[in-house]
Amino acid sequence: GQNIDQPTEMTATEGAIVQINCTYQTSGFNGLFWYQQHAGEAPTFLSYNVLDGLEEKGRFSSFLSRSKGYSYLLLKELQMKDSASYLCAVRDRDYKLSFGAGTTVTVRA
Amino acid sequence: IAGITQAPTSQILAAGRRMTLRCTQDMRHNAMYWYRQDLGLGLRLIHYSNTAGTTGKGEVPDGYSVSRANTDDFPLTLASAVPSQTSVYFCASSATLGGFNEQFFGPGTRLTVL
């Protein structure tokens, strides 16, 4: 199985940058996903990393270090609509996803 | 239908009753999944299906059963509901298993067992 840790809550100011860290322990790593989930809604896909390094997609970037069991999601130029929970998920060799408990980000004006 | 639909949206159920949560996707995805989401615990996999006709157990399968008679539908059944099954249930699907294949989630079913 997987053991996935991420902070419970983070608060940042509109226009700022926030970095959400995720550490994991896995018996078989086969990719890492980040999802965004607004309150009362379904999770939606943000990013995918399978090799070490940085993946950039607009205001969002995700980094992976497989040797350290570590990933982060970077949110730049924060907007009020970015207030949501951010879920780190690790895929195993059987292609099943295990999710962290999620990080609730609150963006303040 | 566009994407994944789930029914009902919400349900209050007496303990001991049988309940089937419905999930339908129109994307012709091979793989489908059922998760439950509880505060502080995140999403946990209940059952999954890699392709029509096959199913597998996830992290928390006890008290739940699934079937996958065709590509589009993946119902989740609680044979005899218990209060600990109060949760938000999400169905998801992905085109295939490996590579860059994100899971798409349905809108969820909020279930309360009294």
Task: Give the gist of this structure.
The complex is a heterodimer of chains A (109) and B (114). Chain A is mainly β.
Secondary-structure blueprint:
The complex is a heterodimer of chains A (109) and B (114).
Chain A: E1 2-5, E2 9-13, E3 18-26, E4 32-37, E5 44-49, E6 53-57, E7 60-65, E8 70-75, E9 84-91, E10 97-99, E11 103-108
Parallel strand pairs in A: 2-11
Antiparallel strand pairs in A: 1-3, 3-8, 4-5, 4-9, 6-7, 7-8, 9-10, 9-11
Chain B: E1 4-7, E2 10-13, E3 19-25, E4 31-38, E5 42-49, E6 56-57, E7 64-66, E8 76-78, E9 87-94, E10 104-105, E11 109-113
Parallel strand pairs in B: 2-11
Antiparallel strand pairs in B: 1-3, 3-8, 4-5, 4-9, 5-6, 7-8, 9-10, 9-11
Fold and architecture overview:
The complex is a heterodimer of chains A (109) and B (114). Chain A has 109 residues and is mostly beta strands. Chain A contains no helices and eleven strands. Chain A has strands at 2-5, 9-13, 18-26, 32-37, 44-49, 53-57, 60-65, 70-75, 84-91, 97-99, 103-108. In chain A, strands 2, 4, 5, 9, 10 and 11 form a six-stranded mixed beta sheet that branches. The radius of gyration of chain A is 13 Å and the shape is globular. The N and C termini of chain A lie far apart (40 Å). In chain B, a hairpin with a 6-residue loop joins strand 5 (42-49) and strand 6. By secondary structure, chain B is mainly beta. In chain B, strands 2, 4, 5, 6, 9, 10 and 11 form a seven-stranded mixed beta sheet that branches. The radius of gyration of chain B is 13 Å and the shape is globular. The chains are: A mainly beta (109), B mainly beta (114).
Keywords, please?
heterodimer, A: mainly beta, 6-stranded mixed sheet, 5-stranded antiparallel sheet, 11 strands, 0% helix, globular, B: 114 residues, mainly beta, 7-stranded mixed sheet
